[in-house]
Amino acid sequence: xxxxxxxxxxxxxVLSRIQLSDDEIERLTGQLDVIVDNIAKVSQVATPDVPAxxxxxxxxxxxxxxxxxxxxxxxQALQNxxxxxxxxxxxxxxxxxxx
Amino acid sequence: MTDxxxxxxxxxxxxxxxxxxxxxxxxxxxxxxIAAVDGDVHAFLHVSDHALEVxxxxxxxxxxxxxxxxxxxxxxxxxxxxxxxxxxxTSGSRILEGYMSPFDATVVSxxxxxxxVPLGKTNMDEFAMGSSTEHxxxxxxxxxxxxxxxxxxxxxxxxxxxxxxxxxxxxxxxTGGSIRQPAHVTGTVGVKPTYGGxxxxxxxALASSLDQVGPVxxxxxDAGLLHDVIGGHDANDSTSLADAWPSFADAAREGxxxxxxRGLRVGVIRELPDSGFQPGVSTAFRAALAxxxxxxxxxxxxxxxHFEYGVAAYYLxxxxxxxxxxxxxxxxxxxxxxxxxxGTVEDVMAAxxxxxxxxxxxxxxxxxxxxxxxxYYDAYYGSAQKVRTLIQRDFAAAFERVDVIxxxxxxxxxxxxxxxxxxxxxxxxNDVTTIPxxxxxxxxxxxxxxxxxxxxxxxxxxxxxPAREDARLYRVGAAVESVLVDSWGGxxxxxxxxxxxxx
Lengths: 99, 503
Description:
With 99 residues, chain A is mainly alpha-helical.
């Protein structure tokens, strides 16, 4: 058994900015427990002598000249914004009262 | 008159270039077909309202004597993961409902430049997370072979669109099998190119070290023709390979007429025994291998001992990368925003992501966040990356002995809608044969192998080749396709039920 608990799932929801309901937390706890038990087997073969692979094809950093290329216009950048004003994205308060 | 929707893209292109058919006629035929059957199939999330104008423009250019590409005037369906300026792009998610991209994905702009006519956007599991399209926020797609069954996923919409003759060609994306597994269950062709072979610029990212865009079609040649249009280096994708690629259509033509099966060494993986597959899937797979052997191919048993860790590694790497990629849906710059009276921007963000993401997306984001947490990173994500190395070594050892590897494309034929939706782990195991290619970056193709005897549903055979050897897959795929279609007396899709209540 893994150590997936409702409190851990709630905390992961906070970290990933998803406000999970109690029902969701209960359901996810059971499902993640089964999934984590199964995927934990990777550690059986991942011995210290095996190097990690992050990308399937070896790649090098790609550089380009430091020149302005094709960019979005202000109107394009804002066209899908849920709310905008004065050429900026508009959001609700950054800080809550207790902060 | 010929039903234009039944023609392969290559045959339709020949009619278009000889002038016997106009692009407007071809496009109208497919729009009529969509109107007739898509109420049942639901392959499309959006149908273009100006496809006929685009087609008319191609016809005008052709009459004016402009030099046009080989696929000019041929209709194309586009998976909704690819952004388009003239149609909404949602990636199957409620959080992006109505999103209009200010730019086209590179593969879309290349398709437009080649004269292909976009018909619409196809359904998919939300953010390409799934194997059945049941995780689409807009309802599932139905398999044209049996409307109560899944069309595969995540690209079930693109596969069903070509299987139901709603489009001759479609674009897909494959992160763990999302092009190849839908091809398997719908009796169609799908190719996952070498990682970096096709630009992902404008493909809404799921897992950036695994995602690859590729062609969906009914024949190997058609896939090659589309791959030729969309492939090649793109400076806007930092993982794009700078290789000069051969013509994949030429490779398919060579395979179909040539003798490439003679002496071809075909690896069959010992660790994927027949007992792991539905009996009819194994039988169809073995029959396809026997047909290859009869044409001079040599079947060689190979060992890939780490493939059994592939699914586990994949479901650590993918959620980890997805949880990072999907952080961009923050309710600020684009997409949905839920109103939280008096709430801070963070409250609004959390409420929006709860309302806008479906169950599977939340499951994977939470799983990925867990796998990347301090104290777990080495045990999970770090170990998964080591498994990736081990799987690459399995491939390298195998390709010293064989030219291609063959597997059934998936463990079962199309299952019933709803059958696995409450069991995420069972759903994940659908990808056992397709995932290793994404982990290692190698190309893969799925082509129809036959019908399973117990349920009469399509089975695909998958071929894998070393990285950058995509052309080999087109040669071998076309050769096997030609042998099998001859033995069946016609394409497998001729045996699919008639849609639209006309049975």
